[in-house]
Design goal:
By secondary structure, the chain is α/β, with parallel strands linked by helices. Among the domains are: 1-94 and 286-328, Rossmann fold (3-Layer(aba) Sandwich), CATH 3.40.50.620; 335-485, Isoleucyl-tRNA Synthetase, Domain 1 (Orthogonal Bundle); 512-553; 564-664, OB fold (Dihydrolipoamide Acetyltransferase, E2P) (Beta Barrel). Helices cover 42% and strands 17% of the residues. The strands form seven sheets. The protein has a six-stranded parallel sheet, sandwiched between helices. The structure holds 5'-O-[(L-methionyl)-sulphamoyl]adenosine. 5'-O-[(L-methionyl)-sulphamoyl]adenosine is lined by residues 8-11, 19-20, 22-23, 48, 228-229, 231, 255-256, 258-259, 287-288, 295-297. It comes from Dehalobacter restrictus.
């Protein structure tokens, strides 16, 4: 069977984090399971690069958008590699293979009048990349409950996509295909939304140039969501690529709850307009929230360095935690202390201990050689039956995209295995000559249980079979899912090894001690930096350590000055007229600025943060009464103000269009 699974393509405006990792890890577990079942799997992920917010972020970093996203895309690729993600392709919407399909589709829709030209007047939320009508706004702000940020008024010539024409057909389709949108609560939400009436969608912008150009009217760029959704077929080589013919329609689009609407309304209508089949299922999972509440996201500043987390705990525990924590369709919470707790209880204690204690017994009682089993008893038969149920239960839960329930089913088997050790008490059997046959059976069953656990864990934690393989005589037992309920697979006579613990316990008290001493260090540092006693609650949870560390890194304050001393400084608004690089000086830019009719030359050390073009036209703040100084032979008449942190520089500007020469006080 063919199986095509996708993740959303991520905005590369900032580095990947734990919140965004869930979808990709869940899709990976599903893809791996289907591959092990012998299906023909295609697993796609990628990045959504043509967004207006990318232009903004890049501008603020003083970089051109492509150079900016190239750096972040590399981080995404590295992140997925470290998390053992087995995607078959990675699509970037800045790639030609994607752009040409978007242009082709835009033209096709235009030619059949499903896209038409008109004028857009309404609001736009750049963080959400969404158009809003006036009546939808809440207190004049973005109505998305997770956003609530400022929206911008747009009035521009635009192309529109005739969504209204398809609303009846879409509604019918959703009603006829109960599995199309899952979970049911999201399905009902979407039905209500469509019943409220669909408006035509604005699908082009003219106020910036970054993006895919409308081929027959290149002052327009294609609206980022129309562009992004097409990735699911452009990456397969639509319209006549072999992969497209093989894999489309997708089996599942796995997405977060915030973007179900785009995937179950805009995307199906695009496909209907093109006369293409719709994906079989769109599954909308919940979010990871921080312990203090609120979605984990870069803009909320509540994310921990995820690369550091992987380095500290490894990919498997993080994968396990995320997959197990997010209950079907609901939100979950992520915190490092919960991760440590789960690692210790489920992985080190339940799974890891079973593996190490049973291997140790084969070493102790049979010199590390797997014995020939004797007669089975009801106990062994019960375990065999359970393995079939667990195998089947896991498949069913994963088919429903319920990763937490799938792992719960597997952990029933883990618990049963541990109970079997206690019930059979091999240490007692070993004491008597009469029980040696029985001991053989028990030890053999242990080894088979380890093999089966390796298979069951493989889709979720690919590191587990890798670690178990050398312990079970180096045979790769773990590729075929069907073997998760076959028995007598391991050859008696196989030499096994004890090896290291597959999940070493994390010493919680040592971990907390470490966190506490780091917090104390940060508190002292913060107090030193700010020069006054700051109340810092030492009971704060380790998940807040990140914020504290950030505060501690603040550069210490300089000594106090009087108001008179401050009043001696003269800051003015000036406009940058020209900017160029200073030859043979990597860091310096030469600026020509205008201040109330007067022109000045300024040499500024910002060349590594701003391209000359990015500065021209900007209104910036000048220290206007600074004694002129010669830099690289150029007389610099003042200094431009910029904020800096961690080597990043951002030039200060004024929001309003103030006249140059205006005083800053
Ligand atoms: N670029 C669009 C998707 C286009 S798909 C054709 C986008 N990108 S995103 O980077 O903002 O988000 C990507 C996915 O990450 C979304 O599914 C979103 O729900 C998910 N998550 C972001 N933060 C999350 C959590 N804290 N928890 C779980 N998922 C979260 O939207």
């Amino acid at each position: 069977m063919k199986y095509y699974i996708t993740t959303p393509i991520y905005y590369p405006n900032s580095s990947p984090h734990i919140g965004t990792a869930y979808t990709t890890i869940a899709a990976d577990a599903m893809a791996r399971l289907r591959r092990m079942k012998g299906d023909d799997v295609y697993f796609l992920t990628g990045t959504d690069e043509n967004a207006q917010k990318i232009v903004r972020t890049a501008e603020n970093a003083g970089m051109d958008p492509l150079t900016y996203v190239d750096g972040i895309v590399d981080k995404f690729k590295e992140f997925w590699r470290l998390l053992d993600i087995s995607n078959d392709d990675f699509v970037r919407t800045t790639e030609e293979r994607h752009a040409k399909v978007v242009q082709q589709i835009f033209t096709m829709l235009y030619e059949k009048s499903d896209i038409y030209k008109s004028e857009y007047e309404g609001w736009y939320c750049t963080p959400c990349e969404t158009f809003w009508t006036e009546n939808k706004l809440v207190d004049g702000k973005c109505p998305n409950p997770d956003c609530g940020r400022n929206v911008e008024l747009l009035k521009e010539e635009s192309y529109f996509f005739r969504m209204s024409k398809y609303s009846g057909r879409l509604l019918q389709y959703i009603q006829d295909h109960p599995d199309f949108i899952q979970p049911t609560s999201r399905r009902n939400e979407m039905i209500r939304f469509i019943e409220g009436g669909l408006e035509d969608l604005c699908v082009s912008r003219t106020t910036f140039q970054w993006g895919i150009k409308v081929p027959f009217d290149p002052k327009h760029v294609v609206y980022v969501w129309l562009d992004a959704l097409i990735n699911y077929i452009s990456a397969l080589g639509y319209p006549d690529g072999e992969k497209y013919k093989t894999y489309w329609p997708a089996s599942v689009h796995l997405v977060g709850k915030d973007i179900v609407r785009f995937h179950t309304i805009i995307w199906p209508i695009i496909l209907m307009a093109l006369d293409l089949p719709l994906p079989e299922k769109v599954f909308g999972h919940g979010w990871f929230l921080s312990k203090e509440g609120g979605k984990i996201s870069k803009s909320r500043g509540n994310v921990q360095d995820s690369f550091q987390l992987i380095q500290r705990y490894g990919a498997d525990p993080i994968r396990y935690f995320l997959l197990r924590e997010l209950q079907y369709g609901m939100d979950g919470t992520f915190s490092e202390d919960d991760l440590v707790e789960k690692l210790n209880s489920d992985l080190a204690n339940d799974l890891g201990n079973f593996v190490s204690r049973t291997l140790a017994m084969v070493v102790k009682y049979r010199n590390g050689i797997v014995p020939e089993p004797g007669e089975d008893t009801d106990l062994e038969r019960e375990i065999r039956d359970l393995s079939s149920k667990v195998k089947q239960g896991t498949e069913e839960k994963m088919l429903a995209c319920d990763t937490a329930a799938a792992l719960e089913v597997i952990w029933q088997f883990v618990s049963r295995c541990n109970k079997y050790v206690d019930e059979t008490a091999p240490w007692n059997l070993a004491k008597s000559e009469d029980n040696q046959d029985r001991l053989d059976t028990v030890l053999y069953t242990f080894m088979e249980c380890i093999r089966i656990l390796g298979i069951l864990c493989a889709p979720f934690m690919p590191g587990v079979p890798r670690k178990i393989k050398p312990l079970l005589g180096d045979t790769d037992f773990f590729k075929d899912w069907e073997q998760a309920d076959s028995w007598n697979v391991i050859q008696p006579g196989t030499a096994i090894r004890k090896g290291e613990a597959i999940f070493p316990r994390i010493d919680v008290s040592a971990y907390l001690e470490q966190v506490n001493s780091e917090m104390e260090r940060c508190v002292t540092q913060v107090q030193g930096n700010t020069g006054h006693q700051q109340e810092v609650n030492l009971e704060v949870s380790p998940s807040q350590l990140g914020n504290l560390q950030q505060m501690a890194e603040m550069v210490p304050l300089k000594e106090e000055i009087s108001i008179e001393e401050f009043a001696k400084m003269d800051f003015r608004v000036v406009k940058v007229l020209q900017a160029e690089k200073v030859e043979k000086a990597d860091k310096l830019l030469k600026l020509e600025v205008e201040m109330g009719g007067e022109r000045r030359t300024i040499v500024s050390g910002i060349a590594q943060h701003y391209s000359p073009e990015a500065l021209v036209g900007k209104k910036v703040i000048l220290v206007a009464n600074l004694k002129p100084a010669k830099l690289r032979g150029i007389m610099s008449q003042g200094m431009i103000l910029a904020a800096s942190q961690d080597g990043e520089l951002e030039v200060l500007t004024v929001q309003k269009d103030l006249p140059t020469g205006a005083q800053v006080k």
